[in-house]
Amino acid sequence: MAATASSFGTTWCLRRAAQAFAISHSHILRNNVKLSLQRNFCSHLLSVSTSLASGVSQTVQALKGEVDLLLKGVGERSVTKEVKHILEMARRASLKREILHTDFLTPPVLKESMQVLEKLADVKAIAQGGYPQAERCRISVGHPEELTSDPDIISALSITGNFQFEPCSHGDFLGSILGTGIVREKLGDIILQGEQGAQIIVVPELVEFLMSTLVKVRNVPVSCTKIPLISLDYEPPRTKSFKTIEASLRVDALASAGFKVSRSKLVDMISNGDVRINWIPVTTKGTTLKSGDIVSISGKGRLKVCFISFWIR
């Protein structure tokens, strides 16, 4: 039963027992009951839990009842749904002592998932995208004793052709790749290489398929070859810091100043679906920003709100 006590599910059972302990001793604990405190109770209750003959079934049930606690703070509904799926994957991987992998995740799902998984003592998570600045990554999850190194779950391809007279955009490469029939979740970042073409990150099982089926990007004939990840040719992002004084924290005000476009033009971009906050499309120009938010506009780059200060005349 020692293995059961250290499993992902048992941790949840212990947390539930810790909560019951905290309630019964509320006259002592009052408002000081926090996650870290509950974890301390879990360590003291370990010997009790290991004696339960039906520990596995009980801990699985406990996990299902506690998932919502971990998902608190994940705002976007679609992101919450994906993070919940990854939590369930982590539970299975830990209980069965196996390593499981996600598809390529969008930045919001990746960020929220890693933050949630870091709270679980019985689960180790590794994110890989091929290079340090990769936006889309795959997560591998498993018990810490099983997941001891980075799994080989991503591959790179070089797409070459003569793009001197017909430059192709990120969207052109993406459209041609998806046109072969693969889904977006199997494809990571696309690194543009100017006149030479592009480099892409994919799941290993699609390398041979793309090498044989991707023969053209827009009107340019191309060839695909597999390359080692160390050969990826990427540039660190170029950044520029600035300060601005605005009357409000609305996205149309701050993004207009950051991207140096008129507010009326920015409103048009929002209407066209070209503006995103934390990779989620903006639906209204009145959306307010906060510290840490990232605003991106198709073809213009990104703006990060580093800090906000207020002053009164």
Automatic annotation (TrEMBL):
Q: Which UniProt keywords apply?
A: RNA-binding
A GO MF term? RNA binding
Among its keywords, does the record have Metal-binding? no
Q: Which Gene3D superfamilies match?
A: 3.30.1370.160, 3.30.70.330, RNA-binding S4 domain
Task: Fetch the CDD domains from UniProt.
Answer: S4
UniProt xrefs under InterPro entries: Nucleotide-bd_a/b_plait_sf, PSII_S4, RqcP2_RBD, S4_RNA-bd, S4_RNA-bd_sf
RNA-binding S4 domain: from which residue to which, for each copy?
249-313
Q: Which PANTHER family match?
A: MITOCHONDRIAL TRANSCRIPTION RESCUE FACTOR 1
What name does UniProt use for this protein?
Answer: Putative RNA-binding protein YlmH isoform B
